[in-house]
């Protein structure tokens, strides 16, 4: 039986963020246990690159967001290796390989867009 991985929110932070720039995402994705799914994070104008330091967060109901990936492809201690980050084309990507039922959650992407950080999840 398939279950749904929800991707609900993305965040762009930093000074000089163009008010016309929109962060794009899939509204939701589904994957079967043991399957592979890739979530993406793009910009309406321009490409996401490593200089945006993409990071990814997972949030389950009633819990605080948990950082899964920082600076494109780095995992904090304790994050399973089935989570990996990359740049794919002009977007940041989070891939879950060998998805587990406990991975059903909301996933958030954060992009650094300027010289100073103003907002974090």
Automatic annotation (TrEMBL):
All residue ranges annotated as the Ig-like domain in the record: 20-109
UniProt keyword Cytoplasm, yes or no: no
Domain of life: Eukaryota
PROSITE patterns (UniProt xref): IG_LIKE
Signal sequence extent: 1-19
SUPFAM superfamilies, per the entry: Immunoglobulin
Keywords, sorted A to Z: Signal
One Pfam family, short name: V-set
Name of the protein in question: Ig-like domain-containing protein
Species this protein is from: Rhinolophus ferrumequinum
Phylogenetic lineage: Eukaryota, Metazoa, Chordata, Craniata, Vertebrata
